[in-house]
Amino acid sequence: MLKGVCTYSAVPFVVCVVCCVAPALAAQPSDELQQAFEVASIRPTAFKAAGGEGGTRSQIQAAPDGLVLGNINMDEMIEWAYNLQHGQLANPGFLRDHRFDIRARAGRPVSERTLRIMLQNLLVSRFNLAIHKEQKLTSVYELVTAKNGPTLPPNKADKLPASYSRETYPRVVDGDFVFTNTSMPEFAQQLTELRGIDLPVIDRTGIQGVYDITLKSAAIAMRDSSGPSLLTLIHEQLGLKLVGAKARIEVVVIDHADEPSAN
Question: I need a labelling partner for 187 at 20 to 30 A (CA). Which of 120, 167, 202, 213 fits?
């Protein structure tokens, strides 16, 4: 039902090199390369299943003083560290089936952007990660507002604590998809992970805020080829549309990664 559930054996997009740039970390300012967690614990997770109904879900919890990652694999770590969508990462197989629990303390309050940089550097220092970036022109869906405007639940951004959980996949509840604590860019990212949506989704709504979104009967519809498509449900229930387009996107390619060094 969800891309990536139970198996991470295939990369869904073929990377076509248009122009190659220098390795990502080499292009970072020197002060960013010095950004490191004060302490970080990396352990193999006790659960191997990813997402799905009844599965143990990957979780990312960012706080001003640190980061907690639960049941997460290499793809998901890199996607969060570099703020990528699933279609922007090409992994030829490095540690895709290995899942980890990570607790990292920053030692001082920092921004989420700094936490992402710290995770990038942790991946280099503990996993010997090597990557490079490429540009490719590809087909995408743009998430836009429909003619009559969006019909979203109330914005809950002002009611959330400084630290709150995000999930990689929507939950399946009684045949519905439930997206919890999601912004529009994050919602677009999660839509990309759904099997019924075969292209990267880019948020073009301009809508700010954080929402709990329920897409009713979406899981049931995915199992019934005679029923409405996900694109139809998104339009009818949320006042949003997925519109086909072409876009040049940056792709991160994993060149190397090892099992993490000891704590």
Answer: 120
Can you give the three-state secondary structure of the chain, one letter per residue?
Answer: CECCCCCCCCCCCCCCCCEECCCCHHHCCHHHHCCCCCEEEEEECCCCCCCCCCCCCCEEEEECCEEEEEEECHHHHHHHHCCCCHHHEECCCCCCCCCEEEEEECCCCCCHHHHHHHHHHHHHHHHCCEEEEEEEEEEEEEEEECCCCCCCCCCCHHHCCCCEEEECCCEEECCEEEEEEECHHHHHHHHHCECCCCCCEEECCCCCCCEEEEECCHHHHHHCCCCCCHHHHHHHHHCEEEEEEEEEEEEEEEEECCCCCCC
